[in-house]
Amino acid sequence: MFRKLLMAVSLFFITIAAQADDQKIESKVQKVVVFLNGAQVTRTAMVHISPGNSTLVFENISPGIDVQSMQVHANGEFTILSVKHELNYFNAPGKQKQIEDLLTQQKALRDQTDLKNGYLAIYEEEANTLRKNLTLSPQNVNLDVIKVKQALDFQTDRLAEIRKKERAINNEVAALNTELQKYNRQLEEINRNSGIATSNILVTVSSNLNLQSEFSLSYVVRNAKWTPVYDIRVKNINSPIAVSYKANVTQQSGEDWKNVKLTLSTGNPTVNAVKQELDPYYLNFASGPVFSNSLNEVVVVGYGTKKSDEDDQTADKAMPRQLAGVSTIPLSVSQKENQTSVDFNIDNPYSIPTNGKEYLVEIKSLEINATYQYAVVPKMSTDVFLTAKVTDWNKYNFLSGQANLYFESTYIGKSFINTNSTADTLSLSLGVDKNIVVTRKPLNEFTERQGLGSNKKETRDWRIEIKNRKSQGVNLLVEDQVPVSQNAQITVDTQELSGGQLDKTTGKIQWSFALKPQSDKKIELKYQVKYPKNQFLVIL
Predict the structure, then answer these.
(1) pLDDT band at residue 322, thresholds of 50, 70 and 90?
(2) 528 contacts: CB under 8 Å, gap ≥ 6
(3) How many angstroms separate the CA atoms of 252 and 94, rounded?
(4) Mean pLDDT throughout 451-456?
(5) Which of 304, 310, 314 is nearest to 276 (CA)?
(6) Coil/strand/helix, residue 108
(7) Within 10 Å of residue 292's Cβ, how many Cβ atoms?
């Protein structure tokens, strides 16, 4: 019995000694590289290392880190034996002081509300007293008329003043209640997140000396991203395009980034960086015939690789949460182009809380030469769109994103910059210009129909009219079409194009011309379709 007690005591002291070797370290986020999906966080801390083996516990780190991405760097005459990760549910971020501060502010608001309501009660009592004291009755009919009038005037003025004060107090009470609701929501949010764990990174080191060393920890978190957004301003069609290239940065990693060195990278660590390999593509008959629902045919089965459900779940986890609110801070930015990505280094320290809000960072401002052209497809819409074409756009490192459009100092709406193209020219839509009027009408009230032998002919004749009401000339592109036959029994005869360029494969016709100020132009489009009488054909 004594031996068992001695062993238990020994184990207890061994455990205490082991815990004593664990040194808790508070580190600070110094640098963050935000990717299109995810972010790499770098923390630093100055650590005292004692002789022997010891475990350094870096606390209060994001719970959503990618464990495989952890890296630890340090210099000195010691050895790093191991690096481990653990979730700590017992050392969640201390919220008690924040809760106490909110409760104190809540109490102050409630005290003010009670005081205001007390004034309302006093004013109501005063109003009731005034009404009772000046009520006329048969016993005081012989009162002096002048004195009665003076008393009534006093009562009216005083009651009006009381009502005015009551309205002001009610407005103040409403404002106080609104502030009180904000504090209630903050407390609810804190209580909802109070059970969230943090990460610990455990670094075991061995040293023969007493020394100090600066440790650097880096890891990737998933709940962070930046998305490109643009402001595009065009003064007039004779001026270059002014482009403000910006980023909406957001994160919900579970740790605040306070006054950190921020870098925006076009890389994406969540994308598989390994080149895909082709497996042999074998063909063989299935064990039994497989029939499709729509056609009575045998389906040949091909065998290949398939993405697992686990991959889908991983992709779902990497999706960002919904965002709320926008904050804006302009910063100085420098650009660095790597082999597979581009980094935009924010020169000034920057702070992004872990609240899911968007913080707008200006990356750079550019003036880009462009060729302007007005374009219209009157068959679809008579609206005339102004487009700007930018050549050699790849050198600006743009990404696909939403753009706010401003033309002639007026906001005209939103557009989308699509850079997922191999074309050398980037086309930007700058909205509709109502000063160019376009109509498209049938030239004859009824289309011409003829029967000839076993065939039938139908003719369509359209007139397109364009009026330039602007004080300056414009270059205009008009697009329309003629039908394209996919049957040898159907023939299309183009009879009038007014000089338009016809693509016989697609049937698309283009007219490109300059239109002087306050001038107009007419275009005629006429074609005839021949097909068998016993067939039905819809011709527009």
Answers:
(1) very low
(2) 457, 458, 459, 460, 492, 493, 495
(3) 18
(4) 75
(5) 304
(6) helix
(7) 9
User: Measured between alpha carbons, how far is 462 from 457 in angstroms, rounded to an integer?
Assistant: 17
How high is the mean pLDDT of the chain?
80
Confidence class for position 106, pLDDT limits 50, 70, 90: confident
Q: How many CA atoms lie within 13 A of 356 on its CB side?
A: 7
CA distances from 193 to 86, 91, 186, 254 (A): 19, 13, 11, 10
- Domain borders along the chain are 20-93+196-221, 96-192, 224-273+280-432, 436-532
Query: Which range among 10-14, 82-86, 344-348 has the greatest average pLDDT?
Result: 82-86
Q: Yes or no: say if 462 and 441 are a contact pair by the CB < 8 Å rule.
A: yes
Report DSSP state, residue 303: -
DSSP state of 141: T
- Please name which of 480, 478, 476 lies closest in space to residue 514, comparing C-alpha atoms: 476
Instruction: Mean pLDDT check: name the lowest of 7-11, 461-465, 518-522.
Output: 7-11
C-beta of residue 61 within 8 angstroms of C-beta of residue 253: no
Extract the tokens encoding 503.
Answer: 């693509």
| CA atoms of 540 and 536, how far apart (whole Å) | 13
The confidence band for 493, taking pLDDT boundaries of 50, 70 and 90, is very high
The share of the chain scoring above pLDDT 70, in percent, equals: 77
- The pLDDT tens digits of the residues spanning 287-320 come to 554 444 433 333 333 333 334 444 444 333 333 3
Report how far residue 294's alpha carbon sits from residue 281's, in angstroms, rounded to the nearest whole number.
26
Alpha-helical segments (H) within 309-395: 309-317
Output the furthest CA–CA distance in the chain (Å, rounded).
121
CA 277 – CA 177 distance, rounded (Å): 63
- Fold of the domain built from segment(s) 436-532: Immunoglobulin-like (2.60.40)
Q: What angle do CA 334, 337, 339 make, to 5 degrees?
A: 160
Residue 515 pLDDT: 93
Q: CB–CB of 179/110 below 8 Å?
A: no
Q: What is the DSSP string of 158-217?
A: HHHHHHHHHHHHHHHHHHHHHHHHHHHHHHHHHHHTTT--EEEEEEEEEESS-EEEEEEE
The pTM of this model reads 0.59
- The size of the chain, in residues, is 540
DSSP annotation string for 37-59 = S-EEEEEEEEEEE-SEEEEEEEE
How far is it, in rounded angstroms, from Cα 216 to Cα 466?
Answer: 67
- Count the alpha carbons within 13 Å of 42 in the hemisphere toward its beta carbon: 14
pLDDT band at 122 (very low <50, low <70, confident <90, very high): confident
Predicted pLDDT at 58: 94
Q: Is the pLDDT of residue 51 over 70?
A: yes
Distances (CA, A) of 79 to 12, 17, 51, 56, 537: 29, 21, 11, 13, 84
